[in-house]
Amino acid sequence: MPSERRETLRFNPNNATTGVVERVFAADGSSRVHKQLRRAGTVPTTPSHWNSSANPQEWNYWAREAEVYADRRLRASLEGTGLDLPAADVTTDDETVDLWLEDVRGTAGVEFALTDHVATAAALGRWQARPLEPPPACASRGFLRAYSTSRPGDISVVDDDAAWRQPLVRDTWPVELRDGWARLLAHREQLLSVMEDLPRTLCHLDAWVSNVIRRPSGEVVLLDWAFAGDGAVGEDLGNYLPDAVLDLFWPAEQLAELEAACWPAYLEGLRSAGWAGSEREARLGVVASCVKYAWLLPLLLQRASAEQHSAYHQRTDAGQLYRQRGIVLSHLAGWCDEALELIG
Questions:
Q1: pLDDT tens readout for residues 144-157
Q2: Confidence band (pLDDT; 50, 70, 90) for 73?
Q3: Which of 33, 215, 251, 310 lies in disulfide reach of 106, CB 3.0 to 4.6 Å?
Q4: Contacts of 322 (CB under 8 A, 6+ apart)
Q5: Best CA proximity match to 328, nearest among 243, 261, 260
Q6: pTM (predicted TM-score)
Q7: C-alpha span between 340 and 18 (Å, rounded)
Q8: Domains of the chain
């Protein structure tokens, strides 16, 4: 309508499933968020690792988010956990599905204080203590392996001395990171298998600060359910913590503090909601999830000589980006070592 004003929001334009994400302001001052999903096979040009699928069990099933919002059992599973879904209306046509979402009021995840992150971790634990059985028909299967092994990045570059001598890498990354990442890559298959054998639950699988808003009431609204499906207990927290730093929304120097506050909150959330598994299993689900990022360091080595750099599709200072990511990559290498100790 001519009276509407539209504001494009930050999103991943490479993913074939997503046409647009925008805030739409009506003439009366109210607003909604409009997200357009594009049917699999209708987008001719997209990076191959972001192709969408028509199979509801594959990780990038194009219509999953619309089906999640319409799933009453899934909405009900969030009740009493501290998590919530936005209200949603769904309209369809031949090539797209349009989501008209509640424009949630509250504190955006990119502006969270430590207490907000802790509340999110605890709420995730409470929700994942009681898996939804049977899982929704649209729930993804095998996300971690399929996603992480389909990313760009030539892992052989980790053995390339010249790549590590690039000034941007040499001047920003700790020297021990090279050996740490080599261990992660050497145990990649083992870590993936371990994650697949851990206790299962329904996971969001893209839990991070850009996908959460905390209402004034305290509930944490989870957005962007495009990958949601079967995952390991602990897997969502293992994504939530590093992703906040990798895209420069939380200082890398405070990642250890973030983890030290959120991990016990997640575990307590599990326990308080009746989860009977072991602390070792939950912790292993967090730290072994480092395998999701096995491809990232090689890709950063390959791109270190580029003229421009970005974080979450927004240009940023190269030195700051590599310093911050060097810290979190070292943290993930530490997670790998901890996971191997827990595996025994």
A1: 999 999 999 899 99
A2: very high
A3: 215
A4: 168, 169, 172, 173, 300, 304, 309
A5: 243
A6: 0.95
A7: 37
A8: 105-343 (3.90.1200)
